[in-house]
Backbone:
């Protein structure tokens, strides 16, 4: 079985909500944010069945305080179908709306005095990502297989589309909250010079994310 489909079956068997928790985000050893997320399975806003991820990350260790809060729906094929994304930035608060059409994902950004829209071709496999919101990377992990798998990555807040590759490297040794751990290692390459390292447990839960080029480390809070 494809690893991504295996992870989906594990998550579906867990019931609803499928997963929820808190990530601690650090640059070097300095905590810069915390992200609370909730993943559920059920009927989506357009009537089909799929998954909904609601996540909120608060960058409050510096000024201005910025809160990013996307709610993303993906369908049974794990394609992103609907996005509502609130950006609480005192310099330019905005709301981003996204919707899947025929082979395209349309993004509309509404700010105080401006409105912008852009359509992105999705290809056969697409994910919605953000450079500063990390729970979203779970959907990229669902697409991973033993060989490199090409994906279209849409970054709505940046109005950007990148070609990336995701790959499952199997079980590997790492650390989690300073303790040794054996986790499933998945990489996402592309979208710039950086490689994103994802670490999932045996139940398909995202436990850790690393971006070495940014000295960034995201770990699930112990007990979550």
Residues:
């Amino acid at each position: 079985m494809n690893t991504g489909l295996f992870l989906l079956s594990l998550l579906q068997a867990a019931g609803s909500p499928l997963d929820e928790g808190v990530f601690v985000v650090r640059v070097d050893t300095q905590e810069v944010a915390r992200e609370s997320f909730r993943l559920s399975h059920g009927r989506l806003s357009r009537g089909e069945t799929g998954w909904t991820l609601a996540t909120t990350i608060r960058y409050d260790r510096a000024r201005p305080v910025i809160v990013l809060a996307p709610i993303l729906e993906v369908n049974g094929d794990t394609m992103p179908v609907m996005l509502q994304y609130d950006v609480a930035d005192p310099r330019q608060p905005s709301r981003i709306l996204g919707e899947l059409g025929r082979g395209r994902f349309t993004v509309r950004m509404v700010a105080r005095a401006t409105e912008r829209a852009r359509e992105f071709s999705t290809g056969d496999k697409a994910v919605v990502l953000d450079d500063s919101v990390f729970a979203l990377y779970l959907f990229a992990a669902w697409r991973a297989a033993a060989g490199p798998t090409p994906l279209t990555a849409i970054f709505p807040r940046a109005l950007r589309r990148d070609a990336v590759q995701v790959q499952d490297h199997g079980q590997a040794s790492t650390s989690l909250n300073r303790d040794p751990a054996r986790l499933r290692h998945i990489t996402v390459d592309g979208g710039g010079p950086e490689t994103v390292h994802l670490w999932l447990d045996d139940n398909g839960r995202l436990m850790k994310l690393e971006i070495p080029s940014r000295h960034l480390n995201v770990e699930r809070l112990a007990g979550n």
Observations:
- Helices lie at 3-13, 137-142.
